[in-house]
Amino acid sequence: MSSSNVVWQRVEVRRSDREALLGQRGRLIWLTGLSGSGKSTVASRLEARLCELGRLTYLVDGDNLRHGLCADLGFSEPERRENIRRAGEVSRLMVDAGLIVIVALISPYRADRAALRSRMGAGDFVEVHISTPIEVCEQRDVKGLYARARRGEIPLFTGISSPYEVPERPELVFDTSVVALDDAVAGILSWLGYDGRPSPR
To answer: What are the residue boundaries of the structural domains of the chain, listed by start?
Structure first.
């Protein structure tokens, strides 16, 4: 619960100062989609390409968060919402630091994604829907999660026993069953305005 006694501490160094030092604009690239859709792979390759271009990045992966910051959370609806809130707030701070932050999270609820967008500055939040159909995701099933969910071993599994709310107006959409992963990465880079040339820094 927030307190009325807590005020925002003003600092002398502004976001624009940090961005000037880095030679880039801070952004939050939020990849949402079903398990197995290709979010994490696209996110990882996108970060690698941005680093090759001389951009300072950070990749926030949902599974990795649950080993630390969100280790106390389960998978009930309230806990999943809190997981998204924490990931979003941490990412928002890093954007303020001037980083290009890439998040790969199922983030199944529109309201949670909309709440995060509302907390960001204009153009700072880039929603990328990895729209791969559930049939394809289930065929991939690298972690065996869909099979376990079908057997009832994993409750509240998104797409099986828990809903996924498709983004209504995402900035970008890629179905990795028909679009190559590298082409999805190239599409995101193009949307961000990176033409493939390294930073002059």
So the answer is: 15-192
